[in-house]
Amino acid sequence: MKAAYIEELGGPDKLKTGDLPAPEPGDGRVLLRTKAAGVGLWDVKMMSGAFGQIPLPMIPGLEAAGIVEKAGAGMDLRPGDEVYGSLGFTAGGYAEYAVAGADRLVPKPARLSFDEAAGLVVRGGTAYEGVVDRLKLQPGETVLITAAAGGVGTVAVQIAAALGARVIGVASARNHDYLRGLGAGETYDYNDPGWADAVLEAVPGGVDALFDGSGGATRDAALKVVRDGGRAVFIVGPPESVDQGRGITGEMFRADVNRQRLEAINQLVEDGKLRVEVQAFPLDQARAAVEQVATGHTRGKVVLKV
User: Fold this and answer.
1) pTM score > 0.90 for this model?
2) 123-252 has which CATH code?
3) 72 pLDDT more than 90
């Protein structure tokens, strides 16, 4: 099968395209004929060795969409089913065939293309877990979302808006109209040194909740506009102190992208409350796709067409 893979740890320049043996699914697993794979910072980190030594050669790609090629007896999936989901840290999405646990795949909604579905797995699962399961955002509450124009942020904005929250997005000025189209009521530019003060003027007392995808200085400024007793979640890196001496509760998390969360995402898609923007690269341009993601400045989600 054709695949993009690495034979040594390093940066995107270590990624090459060639032929490798197709995988065989074990018990409880499905062989997927891959149609598209998401490209994320986790791929960059895994390739670099940030998660430790990995078996080589390694095919990156933790999320994919495609058609079931083989499924074991007793599964609720059948050959020919169009599905998408998480491949887990065994990865393998950057290839014509991949193996996935049946419990990590869900049917692909007809209104989503394979590219869009592949680009929704980790970002959708992360946004849903953070906004719904951890922040427990309620209708009428105000939530501040940093890195709002990024892969996870764009989905978090839409989920929060669908819940009936007041959504404030923080992103570069060129993305503000885009974010308002997704459901953000107000937008602020992190390049403006006074943006946090402007939020406090608009929301006296501060926001109820913070979904931080930025880390660093933007995260620290965002914490200052969370109200006393508010909540926060972080997907990049937590501050030294979340409480800030004001009773703020918060946590960093790594998403558990499971079937239940993807089914909830499917419902939002079917209800027309969630749309997906992707930038698609062909498989033989996998290196260019990973290089773009490694910059940390993308709008929406980068995917590979397989």
Assistant:
1) yes
2) 3.40.50.720
3) no
